[in-house]
Design a protein that fits this description.
2 domains, two-stranded antiparallel ribbon, elongated, HU Protein, Chain A, 3 helices, alpha+beta
């Protein structure tokens, strides 16, 4: 599913226009990105948690000439799926324990 298909699905299920759905999706992405940029975590209960981790500098190898290259330290985004999402993906969604 790409962004346009996601916007269409949101507009259909929420009963709003595609423009409103696109604006809501863009704002959600912007808000999550902004929170991650400042080092905050974003937790959506049942869906998952977005966070950042720091990767230290390391030495890699150029695949063309096999010479070592230095790879700079950086922060990367990380996503950990929540239990409900993991269960839905594995076909366990909708089943309730008795």
């Amino acid at each position: 599913m790409n962004k346009a298909e996601l916007v269409t699905a949101i507009s259909d299920k929420a009963g709003i226009t595609k423009a409103q759905a696109a604006a809501a999706l863009d704002q959600m992405i912007s808000s999550v990105s902004g929170a991650l940029r400042t080092g905050d975590k974003v937790t959506l209960v049942g869906f998952g948690t977005f966070s950042t981790v720091s990767r230290g500098p390391r030495t890699g190898r150029n695949p063309r000439d096999n010479k070592p290259i230095k790879i700079a330290a950086k922060k990367v985004a990380k996503f950990k799926p929540g239990k409900k999402l993991a269960d839905d993906v594995n076909g366990k969604g909708g089943k309730k324990k008795k």
